[in-house]
Design goal:
- The protein has 72 residues and is mainly β.
- The protein is built from one helix and two strands; from the N terminus they run αββ.
- The protein has a domain of 50 residues: Pemi-like Protein 1, Chain: D.
- Strand 1 and strand 2 form a beta hairpin.
- It is elongated.
Length: 72
């Protein structure tokens, strides 16, 4: 998206993301966004998967491999 939108910070410190930006980035009402301060600006990063959804992803993986002596 190579356009500029201006939003206003409310007295409750809230902003409304314009519908076109939501459409372009695929975000919907109620989704979580990570807020990052970077080089004097604010960035919003959509969180598509919660970390808890990765639980069990490596279940059954073979952990029998050669390890250095200082590794557990």
């Amino acid at each position: 998206m190579r356009s500029t939108e201006i939003v206003t910070l409310s007295s409750d410190f809230q902003i409304a993301i314009p519908p076109k930006a939501c459409e372009v980035f695929g975000v919907q009402a109620g989704e979580k966004l990570e807020i990052i301060a970077y080089n004097g600006r604010i960035e919003l990063i959509p969180i598509k998967r919660q970390m808890s959804s990765f639980r069990g992803i490596a279940k059954g993986i073979n952990t029998d491999c050669a390890r250095d002596d200082d590794r557990v």
